[in-house]
Amino acid sequence: MNAAAIQPYTLLDDEDCEARILKAREALGDRLVILGHHYQRDEVFRHANFTGDSLKLSRQAASSKADYIVFCGVHFMAEVADILSRPEQTAILPDMSAGCSMADMADLQNVERAWAELSEVLDAEAGITPVTYINSAADLKAFCGEHGGIVCTSTNARNVLEWSFSQKDKVLFFPDQHLGRNTGYRMGIPLDEMVVWDYDKPLGGLTPEQIEKAKIILWKGFCSVHQMFQPEQIDNFKQKYPETKVIAHPESPFEVCQKSDYIGSTEYIIKTIRDAEPNTRWLVATELNLVNRLHEQYKHEGKNVHFMSPNVCMCSTMFRIDPQHLAWVLENLVEGNVVNPIHVPADVAEQAKIALDRMLEVSP
Ligand code: 13P
Ligand code: SF4
Predict the structure, then answer these.
(1) Model confidence pTM above 0.85
(2) Is 101 in the pocket of ligand 2 (CB under 6 A)?
């Protein structure tokens, strides 16, 4: 059967899509599971069977029995779902252009070059554990699988770094420098033992001495959404509301995390605010859709949840998953057409799974 094209769906309003999504979900029953990341817009988020952070959704994908895993999130998440699910299941990303700009900051060519250059200074295989944040392409996870390395998420970064240092002396951490630095520092690693590898420069812009001294070599990548949060925003807000509790995602800059009372993944942020005393005020450094949802959810308890930045910081790629694309993929599934399947090549998936399984083993 020919798949229906997206174009007519783009003309539908959200209400039409809502009705169509509900009807298609009913028709597909247990054959379908929809996973939704916390940064999804509400019109999509409410259709998820399971919501969560990257770790929780990876586990859901690994344990799901559904034929179709529709991932309302970004490309690397759907890749992980494909890798961790069984071969007869299909992971689907409603809009293929939903990538992650941070994940794009590290590619296999640059990482292999970094590894080769590091090998000129020291024995990289014997001395460095490569660690990739889950926000990365499948071939980088495979690189870690092949080189005794591991994947991490914002929930388990500390457990993963502890495991990594139990294997080798040093860590090469990509692509998010902030998650690496914030986690390393909280483990007691001084800032001058965490150097930044600039992938546009020979030897990462570092001297052999700097590399030899470093415990963590941080890739020069960042999340453009969390990069917008600044320590002055905390100071300004606290001048008006000194009682405020500050909570930040560890993709935020070091100075912001240093000024925060709590640091953790999206799931951690949700639980912390959910379990907080009524009538408390929160300043939150993470994506806007999640912060707005928390505000709405807990305002009846007198909890005031504020977004840290005066500017709008939405993840534009998460936002690409809209009700129109969701209705499109689901109605096609009802007709027996799989649109936007994510298939990681078998050789890449095999190595990437090694690194993902290591992560799942050490995760809390
Ligand atoms: P978590 O939901 O795992 O905390 O990650 C946030 C994120 O940036 C996803 O891309
Ligand atoms: Fe990537 Fe940042 Fe968007 Fe997360 S919030 S998907 S890290 S761009």
Answers:
(1) yes
(2) yes
pLDDT digits (tens, 9 = 90+) for 314-330: 999 999 999 999 999 99
Distance from C-alpha of 197 to C-alpha of 93, rounded to nearest angstrom: 32
Q: Closest Cα partner for 287 from 265, 303, 271?
A: 265
Pocket test for ligand 1, best of 39, 152, 179 (most atoms within 8 A of CB): 39
Each as own residue / partner, the long-range contacts of residues 187-191 (CB below 8 Å, 24 or more positions apart, any chain) are: 187/158, 187/161, 187/162, 189/215, 189/216, 191/254
- Return the CATH fold of 3-99+317-343: Rossmann fold (3.40.50)
Domain ranges of the chain: 3-99+317-343, 103-223, 226-307
pLDDT of amino acid 1: 63
Residue type (1 letter), 310: P
Atom of ligand 2 nearest to the CA of 101: 8
| Three-state secondary-structure class, residue 203 | helix
Give the pLDDT confidence score for residue 166 in this predicted structure: 98
